[in-house]
Amino acid sequence: MTDVPAFDAELDACGLNCPLPLLKAKLELNRLASGAVLKVSATDAGSQRDFRAFANLAGHVLLREEVDAGIYRYWLRKA
């Protein structure tokens, strides 16, 4: 089993449709210090594409992503 990264803040965006999971994650990241890790849980399948592109464009690091029983989880390290 792969180690799950530790996180500094957690956001539950389950039940929200695109683009709300990403928008809420952006707001939460704004509150965090550089280098902090945000864990996001979402149920929107489109969030996979969104979080990958967002991390790439914004300079954040997508440390891990996983899917389990229809729940998508992301660990983002703030740039």
From TrEMBL:
Residues spanning the membrane: none
Alphabetical UniProt keywords: Transferase
UPF0033 domain mapped to chain residues: 11-35
Top-level taxon: Bacteria
A Pfam family recorded for this sequence: TusA
GO molecular function annotations of the record: transferase activity
Family the entry assigns: Belongs to the sulfur carrier protein TusA family.
Protein name, entry field: Response regulator SirA
Organism: Ectopseudomonas composti
